[in-house]
## 1
Amino acid sequence: MPETPPAGAAVREGPSGPPAPGRRPRRLPLVLILGSLTALGPLTIDLYLPALVEVSGDLHISQAVTQLTLTAFMAGIAVGQLVIGPLSDTLGRRRPLLTGLAVYVVAGFVCAVAPDPAVLIGMRLVQGLAGAAGIVIARAVVRDLYDGLGAARLLSSLMLVSGTAPILAPVLGAQLLRVTSWRGVFVVLTLLGLAVLTATAALLAETLPPAHRRPGGLASTLRTMRDLLRDGPFTGYLLTGSLGFAALFAYIAGSSFALQQVYGASPQTYSLLFALNSIGMVATGRLNGTVLLGRYPSHRILAGGLTALACASTTLVLLVTTTHAGLPWVAAALFLIACPVGMILPTTTALCLQRAPHTAGSASALLGTTQFLMGALAPALAGLGGHGTALPMAASVLGLALAAAVCFLALCRPWRAVPDPLAQ
């Protein structure tokens, strides 16, 4: 079990341990439902990306105003998790989740018929706030149903479902625009949200019993989050995973320009490389859940993932600064950067939630919001510097990878002779 946090910390209140096995749904439906809930937010972003140009022309707005439809959604997801996560600790998981999905469906429909940019931007904000319910509560449900190693394995399995969203969504969005308009894309998103809502209502029961719920109120929520952040290992896992997530976003933000403008990749080649890297990350997550976890201590797995990320990003910096390596070498280095994230994200998420068995909603909210905020800063880092070079992207990925490693060593102190935090 984890180290004992300071006296009075919220992360250790109440009875501990996994719930009775009889309350657990079958694993495959659970993976599909929770994976769909986790993927709905990213899918709402990526499926819409190919339609940005058409939105700008149809509504007669500038590119900057069109981008606000993305910014509003991202802001909604970040803020929504902070609200819905603690709320689910008070009311249970099912009511906030179903309410959020229902609001998402309504907001998606209004986006499809939006008469002007103001309505579209406002509804995208509402859609993000509501869509946050699926992301934050899915992680909390995992912690409700599984403890330690079981939670880590399930989180790794979820990457098989949620990880396919960034692979398929841009392609699907482009194909949809061949037969419909940008409004039709929102109709499809509305129908997807309705399908996820129906499946969740039918197949996912309440996972947080009343005895394990916490009193509500802003003051109680702030105290809970304060106690979580005072717990050194929790904050260490939080920052380690969020910085690893930001390193991935720095690669995503910078690779389009670097591979196409600097190394001459065609849009088709870039799409293929992006898909291969996403598949590599998903495959590593699957390997992490089925082979590594349980066979090796979680701290050793996390250290291995961070080391691989740092080595791959160092190699990329050397390639773009000291050699004239072509596209194949740079693409290989980017593939090796994406893969370790499949180990880092599910492992740090499980370790965070392990330290918060009865405040999993608040812990999940802090985790998700921190990841999205750091992910939002990563493109700015990757865009610093001059044009005509991939160095800003490579340097930002390396810097974030090293920062993640420093947080892990300084706050989690993995060399301590303690039992594996995820051991049952």
## 2
Amino acid sequence: MHQRLTVEKLGHRGEGIARGSAGVVYVPYALSGETIVAEVDGERGRLGEIVVPSPDRIAPFCPHYTVCGGCAVQALAPGPYAEWKRGIVVAALRGARLEAEVEPLQDAHGVGRRRATFHARNRGRGVAVGFMQARAHEIIDLDECPILAPEMGHALEVAHAIAHTLRGLEKPLDINITATLSGLDVDLRGAGKIEDGLKKKVVALAETHDLARIANHGDMIALRRLPVVKMGLATVAIPPGGFLQATLSAEECLAAPVLAATKGVARVADLFSGVGTFALRLAAQCEVHAVEFDAAALNALSAAHRATVGLRGITTERRNLFERPLLADELKPYGAVVFDPPRAGAEAQAKALAAGLVPLVLAVSCNPVTFARDAKILVDGGYKLERVVPVDQFKYSPHVEIVATFRRPAVKKKKARLLG
């Protein structure tokens, strides 16, 4: 059913929110203040006509916008866009009943994304390779993507070549491609076992496209050069499928407040350390204890540390912090703790920190909702939330990163009275 709607605001998923004849309607690609005609089905709306456009509407730069699901908001002018994305963090904190000043949004798109996961599905006699269609399971077949970094320029060409080579497997593939200083690093997911004859074709493909490495769910197929990236003074050889921040600019934007806040601290615990995004930078100014469950990531961190001149000591510990967080007694040696968990957040670790006396905590998050939950735990445990920095790594999407500073007020010791 088509309805004429007035969009009241832009929601946290980048959808216009309006009130239809039967209640709230969410309309992707509509902007706040617009009068639109939408095809409404329950609470979902499909944008048809923009009757009165928002004064903040601009022309999107990608021809696939509104079809490809990779970007939710490209038609909003930069100023209102930054306020909308900052507002996602503000709303999450308000929902947790926390009062904190949220700084202006930092643009961390830089030159573009250095990693992406392309989906490949057989389609008739061909193969579709690209990103998922917005709110559907169809693949939008792409040959280019303007939000990728220049060094990812031929990544889609590589993804197409791999998908066609493995088409006979008749399996849905996820092709994770990361740009490194050594070239493109590829890790396949969903292929299952690849027989030797087909592996030879994949090896030949790596030669043809000058790839650094191709792995199948972490298992090596072709290694021509170790894929490496810089992290501070160190050069890290990342494991197959290893996690990196999507843009180099975001990695630097997230690290800068952490380094500034911990300057002068002797020992720092880096929890959920990964391959060393923070630990390897922190080691230029202090001793670091890095804790991570992924053994390959820890091995990469340790190898980079050993090979780098000018860093202080880094110790490592393999540990599942969701099940076994560092407890108050274990946290005593540290002047500061940095934690950067997955989207699920670090509820158990936040509770352990709240029960301890670490003077300074730096929380890094990719999920405002779980960040706000963990922040509430710390604040209720006596910490003061001093600084909240929103970082826009996944530009044009609803995702936003956060770096926050928590400080435990010093306890003043009462002078003992002398009894006369």
## 3
Amino acid sequence: MSRVLAVAHRGDPYRHRENTVPSVLSAFAAGADVVEVDVQLTRDGVPVLLHDPTLERHWGDPRAVARLTLDQLADLGSPGLRVPTLTEVLKATDGIPAGRLLIDLDTAGPAAATWEAVTAFGAEDRVAFCGPVTAMLAIRELAPAAEVALTWKQPTLPVSALLADLRPYAINPPFGLVDEGFTAAAHGAGLTVSTWTVDLRRTMRRMLRAGVDSLTSNRPALLRSVIDRAAGHR
């Protein structure tokens, strides 16, 4: 069995604010193979790291990021802790041996600007994308060779016609849908299985027994230790 990947959910959010440069760097330092980040667009079309459409939850501002320019967004936070652009995060992680980002797109809207930022920085070989069908089809249209993981919330696999059009490398369901039967079916279809968001040790172990290829967690250090311990016992 290949090494199971440890994916950090929005960085290392129990130690640093999610989707910030310190959080992403902390996750890699904790042993993550990949860091999953979320992208939204500013009013002037710049991809920035943010999960929610508004700034309320983490930045105390009720405005939608889509209504703010990048200059207006820069006024929030502080120089060391603010909403970063995707380009800033690509730069901050350049040269990290793991250094791979999994960019989560909830909709197709940010796809073009996100791919433009990735290609402008020359980071095509160290990013992958995940999200629902519409967002991943948009990425596939822009980037025929990009790595795409299809976020999927059904207990059975997508129809073969969709898989043929999208050509994902992975199926990406929440952990509640995953068991040995699901992973066997996915592997039989030529897909790897990534799953989210797994924060309890016992759930991590159960997913490993189910044969997943990638686990996403808010606790990257714990996830790294559980994966490594399980690998050592095989």
## 4
Amino acid sequence: MTKKYQIGLLMLLAAAQANAAEGEGSGVVVSESASAAEAESGVYYDSAAETEAADAEAGDAAQAQTAADDEGGGDEGSHVFGYRNGYVHAALTARGEWTDNLFNNDSNKQDNFLTTISPSFWLTLPRRSKRPMQLVSDNTAVGGLQYSPADTDEYNKVQAYLSGTIDFMTYSADSDLTHAEGDLDAMLQYKPFDKLTFQALDKYTHSQDIFNVAEATSDNNRVYDSNVFGLGAAWYSKDKFSIKGGYRNFFLEYDEAVNDFMNRTDNGFDIALYYEHSPKTNFFLEYQYLMAEYDEKKMPDNDNNFLGAGVNWQATVKTNLMAKAGYQGVDYDEIEGGSSLSSAYDDSESNFYFESQGIWQATYKTSLLLNAKYSVEQSDSEQALNKTVLAFRLALDHRFTDRLRGDVNFVYENSDYAQFSGDERSDDRWYLKPELLYAVNKWLFLSAYCSFDSKDSNYDGLDYETSTFGLGVRGSF
């Protein structure tokens, strides 16, 4: 199981969510939390986009809980899951996991023991004890982002951030599968004066798609390189209005020619107008334009227009919600060369879309994060024009003791494919991962986890059920 779409939680600028500490959005795409696995527990997981984001989002809840500990004046032990305050942070993670269905293929199940060694680092200026952002991207989402980025206010004149991770992965089932994956994140934020902020973000990833019959297989592991880049600005007026805008570029390229139908470059911009109704509530109108351009023209280029409205609401200091909904219009070009597929689809379509994100600090020791979305995405199948995705993600974090923490991540995703043939294809995926994390001290962490992954499709051969059990150890420096 591999990092599909792992480029990032998130990137582009102009989607606002409530700031958990201040109660107002900043207009740039920075998240004050790291993933549960990376920043808190010391274990970073490989899986599909749905899984990646759920794991990262569990960290949001965990970091909110850590902040509650800080504000509550907890003892030294209560801070054991947090990073030290500094300019340079490094870690080394080792984990081993056994799975009963390596290729997520029920007709040909094969067990495997995966060993992963992951060195990582991150640098910040000024120094911090938490990562200033966590980027997670998605190869099928136009523009490279499946979820809008979480906002946070940054009051520094300059904020710089750089991080990198390499995963060395060894498979017992087939030594030819052994490979390395990696990613590199960078961010620079500059505030020339109080009411104006500029930001640049970038995320590069070398990885491969998740194993299953319709994606990566033993014969075609679908290795890819991708990059998300964004520029943005936010301006705050004195009369409760603010405006935010940005530019985004997403680049995706697969190694093998058999997968080149997915190679593309996305470009676009967004702009949003915000009204501060109260210190805890703001409303916004948002427009986003993104163009997907395919390199080999085996799939139709398309223009995507999003027009929506939403609200950021901070109910309490540690509870906030973002919700938005509106219209998504997609206009398709004809496939170059007079392809017979050009007559198999309409040149335009319009759909309702929505997105919601919320964090609830239920108790001093328990946090809950919930995300949901519905939209049209790019296709990962050469037989389909696009796919309409309904996604639901939940991350629960609970502190049993000062040193023992538990996380539960749940994902449901439905993908309805617009097949060129006119046939219906609908995939339902459920993913559940409970995990226990134990902090031996401030620099050494142990973890034990299992996951249950299931897909139910109306297409023959795509169903699977996979169980995974793993142990991990991480040292931070």
